[in-house]
Amino acid sequence: xxxxxxxxxxxxxxxxxxxxxxxxxxxxxxxxxxxxxxxxxxxxxxxxxxxxxxxxxxxxxxxxxxxx
Amino acid sequence: xxxxxxxxxxxxxxxxxxxxxxxxxxxxxxxxxxxxxxxxxxxxxxxxxxxxxxxxxxxxxxxxxxxx
Amino acid sequence: xxxxxxxxxxxxxxxxxxxxxxxxxxxxxxxxxxxxxxxxxxxxxxxxxxxxxxxxxxxxxxxxxxxx
Amino acid sequence: xxxxxxxxxxxxxxxxxxxxxxxxxxxxxxxxxxxxxxxxxxxxxxxxxxxxxxxxxxxxxxxxxxxx
Amino acid sequence: xxxxxxxxxxxxxxxxxxxxxxxxxxxxxxxxxxxxxxxxxxxxxxxxxxxxxxxxxxxxxxxxxxxx
Amino acid sequence: xxxxxxxxxxxxxxxxxxxxxxxxxxxxxxxxxxxxxxxxxxxxxxxxxxxxxxxxxxxxxxxxxxxx
Lengths: 68, 68, 68, 68, 68, 68
Prior knowledge:
Pfam families (chains A, B, C, D, E, F): TOBE (PF03459)
InterPro entries (chains A, B, C, D, E, F): Mo/tungstate-bd_C_term_dom, Mop_domain, Transp-assoc_OB_typ1
Largest sheet of chain A: 4 strands, antiparallel
Low-confidence stretches of chain A: none
Largest interface: A-B, 36 and 36 residues
Mean pLDDT of chain A: 97
Oligomer: homohexamer
Radius of gyration of chain A: 12 Å
Strand content of chain A: over 45%
Shape of chain A: globular
CATH class of chain A: Mainly Beta
Keywords (chains A, B, C, D, E, F): Molybdenum
CATH superfamily of chain A: RNA polymerase II/Efflux pump adaptor protein, barrel-sandwich hybrid domain
Structural class of chain A: mainly beta
GO biological process, one term (chains A, B, C, D, E, F): molybdate ion transport
Order of helices and strands of chain A: EEEHEE
CATH architecture of chain A: Beta Barrel
Protein name (chains A, B, C, D, E, F): Molybdopterin-binding protein
Number of domains of chain A: 1
Number of helices of chain A: 1
Number of strands of chain A: 5
């Protein structure tokens, strides 16, 4: 499946923390460049996400702000 | 101002395209790693965004999905 | 690629309207059940979206509110 | 109150799971077509959401991606 | 219809600007406190939004960041 | 850092509730006008957010719906 989301950034999972319903996953895109994702625990289980996995951070362009 | 957003990714603007109300801005985080942002034209004017500017892509972690 | 997004709703495109930078796409999930999507023109071109295409509406669960 | 959100999809609640702060609610729009929502526990309490309730899933069109 | 969104902020429209597909609407919540909204042109037409209208800005709590 | 987000609403924190991974923070913008924010626990710790702090609610205009 190809996505309309303009940002599909490949990386590797460096941390997975599950909460009661919401999980936090950290993805390293490049050395020192880490993206933080908050998803459902169900998604973590369904995709069997774990440290070391090759994944992509997927972000809709309307969710990207700019700071200058 | 320090932000609660967990993703503040530094880069450089490589493209700015203004529409009638919505603008598209591309930010290069690293060679070949470009993030696409859709913001208001007013924001582009207010921040005087132009190609070459050092900026950050700011993304709330609840807006980051994962693909595997 | 499998996604963390919990909502991947299959349907068929019934309308595509491109603006200057933002496009609107309507997807029929079931007879009379239409989902409205606002994406970039670039995504419409990249995926070659047109009326009749079989596609999925992809929605992160944190973007779904409830009205009662 | 009428909403600007273009997606107001009627259905019935089939599951409510409360976490520590975030709750997950599943809404069946049609047989086999279930939408997953992550909202605050406070919203679940305030709307007294429970299995069997007739509700609508409310989604802003800028939060709908397309996969093809 | 009662909403799960925790932020329903009453105000008055002070500006409406339609683009090709996306419109911008400004809502004054209190003297000098203006909220900016980007919605579809279709929503502006459907709700017949115009300057002076009493409306509410509706925002999901997961879309509110904090700066300090 | 100046932000593209069009809504940067100054106020004062009136409540902080941490969950397992997600925290809820309430910000009073004006007497009786409270904004509810759901952010990560890490952000609460990183910004040392506590009741009484002068902060801003930061909201992207594409995340603001309108009810009439």
